[in-house]
Amino acid sequence: MQVLTLLIPISLILGGLGLVGFVYTLRSSQYEDPDGDSQRILSDQWDDHPKP
Amino acid sequence: MTVAISRQAPSACPACVAAPSAEAIAARAEALKDTRIALSLPTIHCSACISAVESALNAYPGVKDARVNLTLKRANVDAEMSVDPADLVNLLEGIGYEAHELDVATIQSTATDKAGRDLLMRLAVAGFASMNVMLLSVSVWAGAADATRDMFHWISAAITLPAIGFSGQPFFRNAWKALSAGRLNMDVPITLAILLAVVMSVWETALSGHHAYFDAALTLTFFLLAGRYLDHRTRAVARSAAEELAALEVPRAIRLTDGTEQTVAAADLRIGDIVLVRPGSRCPVDGEIVTGTSELDRSLLTGETVPVAAAPGQAISAGEVNLTGPLTIRANAVGQDTSLHRMADLVAIAESGRSRYTSLADRAAKLYAPGVHILSALSFVGWFIYSQDLRTSLNIAAAVLIITCPCALGLAVPAVTTAASGRLFRKGMLIKHETALERLATVDTVVFDKTGTLTEGTPVLSNLGDHSTADLEIALALAEGSSHPLSRAITTAARAAGIKPAQITDITERPGQGTEATWRGQTVRLGRNDWIGAEAGDVTSAWLRVGNNAPVQFRFADDLRAGAAETITALKAAGKGVILLSGDSDVPVTDLANRLGIDEFQANCLPQTKLATIESLSASGAHVLMVGDGLNDTAALAAADVSISPATALDAARVASDIVLLGRDLSPVADSLVTARKATSRIKENFRIATAYNVIAVPLAIIGLATPLIAALAMSSSSIIVSLNALRLR
Prior knowledge:
The structure holds two protein chains of two kinds.
Chain A: H1 2-27, H2 34-40
Chain B: H1 2-6, H2 19-31, E1 35-40, H3 47-59, E2 63-69, E3 74-79, H4 85-94, E4 100-102, H5 104-111, H6 114-141, H7 146-167, H8 169-180, H9 187-206, H10 214-247, E5 252-257, E6 260-265, E7 274-277, E8 286-291, E9 294-297, H11 299-302, E10 308-310, E11 315-316, E12 321-322, E13 327-333, H12 339-349, H13 353-356, H14 360-387, H15 390-404, H16 407-426, E14 429-431, H17 436-441, E15 445-448, H18 450-454, E16 455-461, H19 469-479, H20 485-496, E17 505-510, E18 514-519, E19 522-527, H21 529-532, E20 541-546, E21 552-560, H22 564-573, E22 577-581, H23 586-596, E23 600-602, H24 607-619, E24 624-627, H25 634-639, E25 642-646, H26 651-656, E26 659-661, H27 668-702, H28 708-727
Parallel strand pairs in B: 15-22, 15-24, 22-23, 24-25, 25-26
Antiparallel strand pairs in B: 1-3, 1-4, 2-3, 5-6, 5-7, 7-13, 8-11, 8-13, 9-10, 9-12, 14-26, 16-21, 17-18, 18-19, 19-20, 20-21
């Protein structure tokens, strides 16, 4: 049962990371334009360097 | 801003490291002078469109940043004050994209959907917590015992308590609001079940009990929040689309100060200002005509199709459309005081059909909430008498509350309305009000307005065959010299019939009168009856006079809106009563009613007549759907059980109605009645499924056989069944 002291914190931390990631995407307005984002990925406009 | 700056290429010179902050300050100061422009782009659909529009806009001098939102089909532009939105529209139309300016102030309220984000955040927390707790619960169900089980329960409690405290807030607030107003709603049993489950579980854990309902409390919150979020999305989409319609009319006016034109926001106009109204635009104020002669289209205000002559000294009200010559107007009422606004205020006074309606969910809650509470209390009392054990009895009571908790009920309505609204939206109908679908399902009488609703509101030449080719050639030549709607109708009809314009010279347009020219040495005129010297007709007409010959009458009829005939036929076939109420005169109304086969109609209706008719219909027990577009319809739209207005309708009419028709076609109206009836029966079906599930699960809970595992299984399966049933509507 010693393994539980490792496994439970790990599972909680991993889940927590997912939650933090979601909160970050929500805060940075990444759900404002789902249709546009799915199309923008096809554009090669910023392939060579990121948008300044 | 600082993020954007810090991403810039690092400077080679170490001394310049301090420079970015100075740049940032300068940029921020400049940003204050910037303006925000929103453009509606209805035709964009792919990545090529996005990059074409963005690169065109970004390359325009003065534009700081332009970003396209494909979901909303909109472009947001940050630009310097000097950039004129009209130039950007022309720029985009030049590269082949239809664009319209949107009023930024109107769309701002939905630009960031705060309530939606808030719900989504709570949903995410509930989802995260319920997954983790479920993981621990499965281990307990799989056989974890003694110290391990207790530890798992304590960890669950540590996750559940803060998660519920945060995610459950919308329910707690609603329940508190209802209770402090002395009412019961669906949120009361929800809150009670969640709180009792958590408290009982903590107690059980402290006493090393076998069963804890932490996972049930969390999944319950998660499913219910999902229902709330669906509900919110549906309405947010409709609201933002409705607001976009309103934002399309940017409230601008041209003010004349000492003879110079100045474009200002309509809200900035003051009494006594001189306003210029160009042909084709809508008058922004109530006032008196100072200079200019023209004709006014009043159809949106009164339903009349015949344009009215306008001359200096005459009164003009906000909302009337200037047709031919430019007019200058001295404002004597602006903004909220215009007759347009006062009329719109009538709507608020007229008793609204929607306030009388109690939604199906509320009616279910009224039956359900007391039932559940009584059941739970009875099982507690029963068990306490039988076992004399407070802990067992409370456990049973909590189990009953959790099992009966309206998880499926909370999803039953939003899932169906989301599916039905989505289906109607794809057909071009925007459901604005939450109970509009339910009210639409009960409709048995449909009342239509004529001008702009059943008809396009644009005239069509109706007696082309009666004229000699020579007359038509002259009429066409004269009509092409004017942009008056009747002239345009003659041009369209004559061109379609293959007529070539006659050779005429010296064409002059007399605003408010007609067009005059010389043809083979004779004066030819096309215009109003009093100018030509003819008797006034009973239908919309223009007259042609060649030299001193007798005047020739060109008669016009209003063109039927696409799908109008099919809609009327379908409604009558479905056994609905169809009534036509119009503010127009007898002849055109009778003519239209006969063409469409409407038996019940009334002409020369005042707004009050329409309202009275709707009210007497409602009083006699009919459920009335009102379809109208004008200011004279708004009171009737608000009083009817449910109302629809086309997108071309006046803003006030769209606000007053529950549903907006986005396309030009009227046929979705008949479909929507069918969809609404299907949706309502699906909602009732979902209620029945939820009840059936309770009939099976509740006895188990009462006799004390419901374990947390059974509760979790029953709750999830009923929620999934209800959602799937709703999806059948799509």
